Amino acid sequence: MNGSLGRKINGLFLLAILLLASIVSGLNYFVTKENLLKAAEAKLLSDLQLSIELLDISVPGDWSITNGSLYKGKMDMKEAFEIPDQLGELTDGNTMSIFQGDTRITTNIIENGERRLGTKVADEVGNVVLGKKERFVGTADVLGEPFQAAYDPIFNASGEVIGIIAVALPTAPYIKIAASSATQTIIISLVLALLVIVIVSLIIQRIIIRPINQLRDNANELADLNLNVALYEAKGTDEIAELSAAFRNMKEQLTDTMQNVAKNANEVATSSVALEESAQQTNETASQIATTMNEIAAGVTTQSEHAEQISKMMRDTIAEVERNLAHVEQSLVNAQQSTVIAHEGEQAISKAISHLSTVTETVSYATDSIQKLGMRSEEIGGIITVITAISEQTNLLALNAAIEAARAGEHGKGFAVVAAEVRKLAEQSTAAAQQITDLITDIQAETSVTVRTMESNLTAVEEQVIIINEGGDALKHIVEKVSETESGVGQIKDAFHRVNSNSYAVQEAIVTISAVIEESAAATEEIAASSEEQYATVAEMADNTTSVAEVADRLREEVNKFTM
């Protein structure tokens, strides 16, 4: 295809299609591989079940450990090599292994002419199969090649795990199939890409490259200063149509511009004469400006001296403000310390009030308890009175029984002994009841005194709480006043800070004004010197006026080179 733009566009299309084909092929590879590995896992589990059924048919009986060896029925599994060999033939290359515990004792895996025996299962497999008594499915390395493997626990008659049966199949054939599918996808994508590029190239040549070539030819004509060229007019509303319209607009703008330049060149030639006359008038004005600038320079010098005096006064003011600010800051620190101390006193009063409230409640509770104790003592006294009456009745009955026993003679001696013992017990009960009555009387007397004392203490504590509450209120008022004092001192401090800041700002402003005045004096002197130079410049302007007329003539000649 002619033109570098077409090749670039085709290259971009080719790159995009190749990128898309690569992505689709990659996705196809991974999806196909995943599906095939799932199918392999399903086949693996089927082969595992086949192995178990083959063992049950070939070797009937339960699994067991006998004399340190793994048996199924009466067969020692260390000698059962024909079973994994037979399974490998039935499943087109699957491997089968039987483990006693975690050690391989039977397998059809042959390495260097010998069966691969005595190896251990991986820890992750042992933890699941032997530890959790569950099936494990995962990948395994068999003679350097990846295999998909399944491990099932072997149970004895008691339900204990005594070994593992494992079946594995190679994953390389499945991965090879997925890679082959991805390769076919890439080949098909490349063929389609070439076909799409041919079609796209023809379309681009017609709707993009050809209009751009015509616009390029128009641009070359305009570059040769030919404003009469017939420009290409593209149809539609796309970018090429906009570019064509922009070329036409540019041609119109260039035509108008060159016409205006020709007109302005004539006007410049006419204005050069008037410029020479203005130069003479400017010369006279420059002389007057120089005289005025000298007078202004004298006044600026006087202002500079006054500004220096004001600056000295502001420095003294700032020093005085800083001294007062230090005193205010110390006062603020003292006020803050007073506030802290007052708050601590307020907290102490609050704790004391809280403690006395607790004491008041405790004394009140103790008073109630002692009053209840006095009531219980009276109840006990009533009970003792009943016990005393019962003892007296018992004593009277014992006396009557003794009299009746005496009347009975020999037959009543045993009953007389019992009556005597009952009488002794009645007398002891009466004496004990009297002792308890005396104790209850003493307790009631002491309880009455204690109640009156507790009530007196409760009244005193309540009066103390009232007094401390009044002191707490007074201390709160003091805290509020101290806080107000601290706030006022803080406001004064802030005011001094603002005054200090403003003083510095005023001093800086005065320094700036002084610098400006000095610069103004220097500038005034420079203006006076510039006024003198202006006279010479005006003379040069008169000479340059002639040069401007000559430039205007040359400009007209350049404009005439355009074909309009």
Descriptive keywords:
564 residues; Beta-Lactamase; 5-stranded antiparallel sheet; 3-stranded antiparallel sheet; Helix Hairpins; alpha+beta; 3 domains
Please tell me the total number of domains.
Answer: 3
State the CATH topology of the largest domain.
Helix Hairpins
Q: Secondary-structure element sequence? A: HEEEHEEEEHEEEHHH
Strand tally is: 10
Question: Could you explain the architecture of this structure?
Answer:
The protein has six helices and ten strands; from the N terminus they run αβββαββββαβββααα. The protein has 564 residues and is of the alpha+beta class. The protein has three domains: 91 residues; 112 residues, Beta-Lactamase (2-Layer Sandwich); 211 residues, Helix Hairpins. A five-stranded antiparallel sheet has the order 5-4-10-9-8. Helix 1 runs antiparallel to helix 4 and helix 5 runs antiparallel to helix 6. The protein is flat, with a radius of gyration of 61 Å. The mean pLDDT is 74.
Q: What would you say about this model in short?
A:
Helices cover 79% and strands 9% of the residues. The protein has helices at 4-58, 82-90, 123-131, 172-223, 239-408, 413-560; strands spanning 63-66, 69-72, 75-76, 95-100, 103-107, 110-111, 114-115, 136-142, 145-155, 161-170.
